[in-house]
Amino acid sequence: MPENTLTITDNRTGQTYTVPIEDGAIRAMALRQIKTDAEDFGLMTYDPAFMNTASCRSSITYIDGDKGILRYRGYPIEVLAERCTFLEVAFLLLFGELPTQAELKNWTHEITYHTMLHESTKKFMEGFRYDAHPMAMFVSTVAALSGIYPESKQVHDANNRLLQIKRLIGKVPSISAMAYRHNMGFPYVYPDNDLSYAENFMNMLWKMVEPKYVANPVLARALDILFILHADHEQNCGTNAMRSVASSHADPYLSTAAAAAALAGPLHGGANEEVLKMLDEIGTKDNVPAYIKKVKEGHTKLMGFGHRVYKNYDPRAKIIKWTAEQVFEVTGRNPKLDVALELERIALEDEYFVKRKLYPNVDFYSGIMYQAMGFKPAMFTVLFAIPRTVGWLSQWQELINDPEQKIARPRQIYTGYGKREFVPMEKRTAPAPVAAR
Ligand code: SDX
Fold first, then answer.
1. Distance 27 CA to ligand 1 centre (A)
2. Catalytic annotation present for 299
3. Residue 22's domain spans which residues?
């Protein structure tokens, strides 16, 4: 029997089938030949939430969940966070190689000169209630850019794609800052092209009446590192949304908006905001044991803990913990850190969490740091969406260039009625209680 094959015996018919094993996987379509008779549709796989289904081939990000490994284009996240700027890592994710000095200079210039927003965006932003959630404003405004750049629908034109990619990377900080300023009732601040990507974001967020904003370099570097850590994470929920929507050849603005909408969920990128709510609810270290008990009884989740892939400590959480200490040197220590450290200490010793391999993930410490920097919790997921836009666009490029990819359209296992006779209005009775159906 040839190596790298799987032999399957269908006990319904006694037939055997041999399917190739490629890269540790079998093609789901290889199962369709397994039928009981000529009328049979053939076997499918059933995998709710894609627990064990590869949707694509990708060379962008590698994760080993058991070993707590994360690499972008083969480079360990720890090295990139220490040695690179965010725009340098953005270049790596998008083009596959670290940029030369000249490439990085040009790339930084290109992104810097795409940070301005069309003035009509202001009117769009003014349509939101003053207290609208920044993620609602982010998702909507990113989608609205589709109307400003209609040529972005030419998704098969490589030069057009690159122009939209530069626009999106340049503009997501501007949109995010605009949403924050709208919440605060402050006038919008225009980009300052003299500043770095992180410094300019801080400028658009926090400049008041001073003639020129000067960013604290420690805080700017901390933000840059956090952007690097959040840039991509292979086929997570938001990226799956990006790929699914983009597979219909929707333009990159609408696809990115869909990805950001997925990220906003509390189980995904919205978790960092939920962690702060959880820490506020716990209040002090003394209350931690009671909260842990609530979690173990299934009444709530320990937000910022657990991961579909990492069954070890999320490598990003370690770096964030270190970065937070650098920030606290400048801002003063966030007292919530003590509660978080106690939560982590108890959870990592408790059989409930150990058995389920629940460790702190990227969201556990990031919010504590962001709050110390002056961000409101509602902005935390926006701080995730800004850098993850680079990851979504990198995955979009890969999807468009992958000859195997088609419009995403999963199958289903139908559990509804068989064919029924129509019931005319006069013969309909009050609906049976749902349980009785
Ligand atoms: C991100 O996918 C990515 O890469 C995402 C991300 C990225 O960079 O894109 O890394 C970013 O989304 C990080 C995750 C942020 N979310 C949270 O912190 C929310 C809290 N975490 C959980 O909701 C959960 O851990 C998930 C959603 C992250 C993962 O869920 P899974 O893989 O579907 O696991 P599960 O829900 O099936 O849990 C397995 C068991 C269950 O217990 P039992 O039913 O077996 O008894 O572990 C329990 C769960 O109840 N469990 C938790 C828990 N997470 C899982 N129990 C308490 N607290 C938790 N946080």
1. 28
2. no
3. 5-46
